[in-house]
# Entry
Amino acid sequence: MLRSFSAFRDFLHSEAAGGVILMGAAVAALAIANSPVSPQYFAVLKTYVGPLSLLHWINDALMAVFFLLVGLEIKREVLDGQLSTWSRRTLPGVAALGGMIVPGLIYVGLNWQDPLVLRGWAIPAATDIAFALGVLSLLGPRVPASLKVFLAALAIIDDLGAVIIIALFYTAGINALALLGAFVVALVLLGLNRAGIVRLAPYLVLGILLWVLMLLSGVHATIAGVLLALTIPLVRTPGKPEASPEISPLHRLEKRLHVPVAFVIVPIFGFANAGVSFSGVSWGLLQDSLAIGVAAGLVVGKLLGVFGAVVLLVRSGWADLPARATWTQMLGVSLLCGIGFTMSLFIGLLAFTDPALQDRVKYGILAGSLCAGLAGYLILRASPGKTPA
# Structure
């Protein structure tokens, strides 16, 4: 378990640093979208490169690699890491569930009268792990390591929930033949796993074919990344219960992907999708139920859902607060869960194709994530920690 915890610590560091880069990319996108070169920015994103526009290559292809890493992290943590036992899954798992349900209910409550806008109910349900850990990294030793692990585990479970939501609720018309082909490829990948094949090349080649078939099937192509991840073998050290990072294909691929995903792919996604013009913004936005629903879901919904679930579990004796953490610090971390940038943007783009609706979604995500992140940071900065025993 020492190796696993070390890998998890490396993951926290890379995600936190990547979150800082992502912040810079988002700020740059907003600056350009509100500058004289704004028309060129949007025109470049709409430029077709082969069968897809540049924006679609980013959102459908590059983000499939992001989802591949998400799937690898989920599989590793469930089989050999911080989520490997039910006792470890309980607190972040129930908190993640509350943090998905309550924001969705708040959004629906504010938009129940508009069936079109209701499609965005899942937008505030996601937590951006890179941004949230990036904010935590600014606080240094003020926040105990146990809370960072809790936040990362919660966000990983949250990502799993988002993947399931995308697959079930944001799928276009189905091409049965392409979907059947994807199913066959997935079975072949599973067969490679069962046969003990540990070379990554066959998995990656078939993974590209799986992505193409998923793109043609109508199911969002990024789901191919998760399916591929679930078939990558996790090889355990002979005679030991934990996996071996040196020989396990899952660990090797995950290690190779961390840097390009955290420092290249996710910032590119943020730069391409965070750009929104504020030229048409007025006080009327405060009455826009879509934007308000997203923002309120992220700030209020995540706080009530995550913090409420933790209070319920701890007070009932089913779980303990993370080591050396205080209730005030848990409150701050619950607010940080309201930073929903990357995954919320992704779901928003799937929910709405109308650029005007997408802009309203972005206003809500930016406002909600900024408020949640700032409030969480200030609470954690002002909160005294527990004295080590």
